[in-house]
Amino acid sequence: MLETALAALVAPEGEGGGRMLVFLVQIVAIFAIFYYLLIRPQKKEQERHQEMVESLRKGHEIVTSGGIIGTVVHAEPDRLTIRTAENTRLVVDRSKVAHLLEDEESQGSGGQGGKKGGGKKERKAAGK
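Given the sequence above, the corresponding C-alpha cells read:
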C-alpha cells in the first residue's frame, strides 16, 4: 500500500503522478495557512488571557464576560469576589474575567489598545 502511494508520487508526469504531488502540496499549503492565520493567533490570545487571569489580585478593576464592572476585593484560586457598588459583592469564576480596566489607564493616551470597554476616566466622563 505504502509502496503504491510512493510510486504514484514519483511517477512521470505523463502517468498522472505529478497531479498527486501537486494535490499534496496544495493540501499542506492550506493547513499551513490555517495554522498561521487562525490557530496560532488564537493560542497566543488564550495564553495572554490565562496570564492575565492568574495575575488578578485585590484592587484590580475588571470587566467580566457578562459586562459587569467591579473591583476585586478577595481572590481565591478559582474565584474572585468583586465589589460592583457600595454594598454589592459578587463571586465570579476567574475564567469569566474579560479584561482589566487598569491596563488601559496605565497605557496613557494611546487609546484603548484594542481592548473593549473604557477606563475609569471614560466612565466618569460618560456619567456626567
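The CA atoms of residues 4 and 85 lie 71 Å apart. Try to locate this feature in the C-alpha cell string yourself.
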